[in-house]
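subagent[fold] <- orchestrator: predict structure for attached chain, return C-alpha cells only, no commentary.
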Amino acid sequence: MVSENYKNRIKNSIINRFSAMGVDDEETINELIKVAIESLEETLSKIDEILKGDNLEELGFYTHTIKGILLNAGLDEDAESFKEIKHLAENGKTEEEIKKITIERLSIFKG
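subagent[fold] -> orchestrator:
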C-alpha cells in the first residue's frame, strides 16, 4: 500500500534525522525504518477497512497514529496533513466528506 518512492522518503528522512543527532548505528537506523514502514502499512490497512464501512468513529485514532509515525520519521509536513481529520466530524463534515478528504490525504503514500 505504501509506494517504494514513499518508503524511500521515510528511509532518507530517518537516516538524515538520526545522523543529525549523531546516531550512526546502521542496524538501529534500519530497524527504525522497518518499524516505521510496517506500522504505516498496518495503520493504512485499518483505515482502508474503516473507509469501506459506515462507521468512521475510529478514523481519528488511526489518522492520529499516522501523524505520529510521520513525525517520528521526520516527515513533519506530511504529518500535518493528517492533523485535521480527527476533527472533521466535530466541524460538521458528513461521512462522505470525511471519506473524501481522508482518501485525498492518503494519496501521498501512492507516489
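orchestrator: received. Logging for downstream: Residues 4-109 form one domain. Residues 26-52 form the longest helix (27 residues).
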